Amino acid sequence: MTTPTPPLNVLFLCTHNSARSILAEALLNHIGAGRFRAFSAGSSPREHQQPHPLALQALQSAGVPTKGLRSKSWDEFGTDAAPQMDLVITVCDNAAGEACPYWPGHPATAHWGYPDPSGVEGSEAQRLAAFHKTLLAIRQRLEFLIGLPAEGLDRLALQQHARALAQR
């Protein structure tokens, strides 16, 4: 009998934690098959920030649960009481350029840049299409990540694989 491997903790970072990082958190928790546990946060979420309604709508239409999603500061994950992260991925260029807090455990890091779907102008259908497009792009990288063999998920290999996925 083998001991089950604990899931890898992945933190997705963005500036406001309302769109791209929320999409990534919900999607990885949905498709990660218990091998991953995803979280998201922002470097500077606005006061009373909530997940973008179109992000929630895109997730729901893709069959991804949205219950419990909330915008939060990355400060929540820099404390000793926070879950220790195995991988931290920035999903917007602004957050990638900011000085990140100390992450307990020195997790692997990567940057997967995506255009901000909340910045798209046009009809509601056009704006929702931008969220779906971003969700699809995130899903493509996450499917490669979850397809990695367990032995390829030590810290160094995880960082190399996650950074290579930015090129896809």
UniProtKB/TrEMBL annotation:
<dbReference type="Pfam" id="PF01451">
    <property type="entry name" value="LMWPc"/>
</dbReference>
<dbReference type="InterPro" id="IPR023485">
    <property type="entry name" value="Ptyr_pPase"/>
</dbReference>
<protein>
    <submittedName>
        <fullName>Arsenate reductase ArsC</fullName>
    </submittedName>
</protein>
<feature type="domain" description="Phosphotyrosine protein phosphatase I">
    <location>
        <begin position="8"/>
        <end position="148"/>
    </location>
</feature>
<dbReference type="GO" id="GO:0046685">
    <property type="term" value="P:response to arsenic-containing substance"/>
</dbReference>
<keyword id="KW-0059">Arsenical resistance</keyword>
<dbReference type="InterPro" id="IPR036196">
    <property type="entry name" value="Ptyr_pPase_sf"/>
</dbReference>
